[in-house]
Amino acid sequence: MNNGLLENLYNPDVLSCLANLSNDEVFTTPDVVNAMLDLLPQELFKNPDTTFLDPACKTGVFLREIAKRLIVGLENQIPDLDERIEHIFKKQLYGISITELTSLVSRRSVYCSKWPNGEYSIAKFDNSEGNIRFKKVNHSWVGDKCYYCGASKLQYNRTEDLETHAYEFIHTKKVEEIFNMKFDVIIGNPPYQLSDGGNGSSAKPIYQLFISQAIKLQPRYLSMIIPSRWFAGGKGLDAFREETLNDRRFSKIVDYPNAKDCFPSNNISGGVMYFLWDKQYNGDCEFTNVIGKDRIVQNRKLNEFELFIRYNDALSIIHKINDSGYKMLSEIITSRKPFGLDSFERGHEEFQDNDLFLVSSKGNSYIEEEKVTTGKNLIDKYKVIIGKALSGHIGETDENGQVKVLAKVALLEPKYVCTESYLCVGEYDNIIEAQNLENYLHTKFARFLLLQALTSMNITRDKFCFVPLLDFKEEWNDKKLYEKFSLNDEEITFIESMIKPWDGGEE
Question: Packing angle between helix 61-73 and helix 81-91, nearest 10 degrees?
Fold first, then answer.
């Protein structure tokens, strides 16, 4: 086989196109794969004994790009190209596909034939799978959930002709028996979530299950690209977050707060990140922010805070806030349903005696005071409400590279209440303090500090854990706040460049 033919067989443009086809499955481009491979010690690709596993093959792009590096790296040790290819594909590269279709696509990408034992395969196997396997497994139902992945029985207990999304790698207690061998490198882009049968589009993350299974295999290196939402929240991710932030084997993390900087065709709230886990490493993590074309790198202790601060340039600001001795705004914010009213509550249009004014996501109306079951102490007070739904995807920037953060902030007078679409902040006897609080939440300073704890589309009280609770008898603006907390020019510039000026919010 000549080198020119090999180059034609490994044309990255095909998989670059595939990576942009769907918003349901996030396909990885060759550029991203190679950035992940660059994190590995490159001598791995010069060792004929190094073994690689992709436990979630979709297009085969990871194995294909690894093969390209091995073909070059092993040239001196195995000079004959055909012999080298046979060795690499049979002895070094292994994959587990997530569906039967992706197994065929992956084999076509890696072996240049969907049948590795066929005449067109560049490596000659004696079976139709080669080293890229697909085994249809079933969910293990315990009640209405899968024991392994938490999938909803109602949605995924399907007939044999339909895809069940029961992934082999995470649906076994003995993952080491799948190939019965040791891997030096496990790398891939696992599925991100499955429906858990909750309200609406409720979904359970599953990418952390792939990471946990991979670590059980004790590879020398592990690298995966996953959503970044686990930094501060996410359903079922508390244990994973604690384990990860305290695991000093995570030597490198590359984070994209705006997922479109990595996957231009996918909307992934909270951004994405990829990492290098090194079995023999024990130290601080080299953490990289990728913001547009900028890369900000800093060595970090991942467990410095209970919530992970994703922006390196924000650390010094957070330190100053924490050292100030102030309590945080979360102490005066209500929890879910500030007045006991569901988000779909709409009240009525005609005012009746003793009615209260109701603010909902669909506009203002009236409601009987008897329907208010909590927060009754707030009814006759001035207060501020914040829309729980964010403006756009977290980290997604406008044309100026700035983030808005809050969608709505509004002052409510006495006799006004709201649905659970809002959080309620403060309670005051005079309008001045409430106005000062409202204006404070308009500042770039406050919204920047809120952003540091956000990784999902919904705001909760605990996300204000870095926003200081000030005296709202005093009026605040960004200039006064920067001076009060002794921010330097670089810190001010960072906030000003990141946060969009307040535009009045949504009406």
Answer: 140
Beta strand segments in 343-421, E = 355-360, 363-368, 382-387, 409-412, 416-418
CA distance 422 to 412: 12
Is 232:308 a contact under the CB 8 Å cutoff?
A: yes
Give the chain's radius of gyration (CA, Å).
26
Cα–Cα dist 121/112, whole Å: 6
Q: Which residues contact 151 (CB under 8 A, 6 or more apart)?
A: 139, 145, 165, 166, 194, 195, 196, 204
Helix, strand or coil for residue 127?
coil
Main-chain dihedrals φ then ψ at residue 153, nearest 5 degrees:
-60, -35
Q: For 35-89, how does the pLDDT look when each residue is reduced to its tens digit (9 = 90+)?
A: 999 999 999 999 999 999 999 999 999 999 999 999 999 999 999 999 999 999 9
Q: Which strands, in side-by-side order, build the sheet including 363-368?
A: 363-368, 355-360, 416-418
Phi, psi of 294 (to 5 degrees): -90, 145
Ranking 317-326, 400-409, 481-490 by mean pLDDT, the lowest is 400-409
pLDDT band per the 50, 70, 90 thresholds, residue 23: very low
Tokens of 61: 């792009």
Contacts 24+ apart (CB under 8 A), 345-348: 345/371, 345/419
Evaluate whether 402 touches 500 at the Cβ level (below 8 Å): yes
Report the C-alpha gap between 286 and 145 in whole angstroms. Answer: 38
| For the chain, percent of residues with pLDDT exceeding 70 | 91
Do residues 294 and 280 lie in contact, with contact meaning Cβ atoms separated by under 8 Å?
Answer: no
Type of residue found at 489: D
Helix (H) or strand (E) holding 451: helix 444-451
Helix (H) or strand (E) holding 319: helix 315-323
User: How much is the pTM?
Assistant: 0.82
Q: Are the CB atoms for 251 and 276 separated by under 8 Å?
A: yes
> What average pLDDT does range 225-237 have in this prediction?
84
Q: How far is C-alpha 488 from the geometric centre of its chain's CA atoms?
A: 31
Nearest Cα neighbor of 424 from 391, 456, 373, 460 is 460
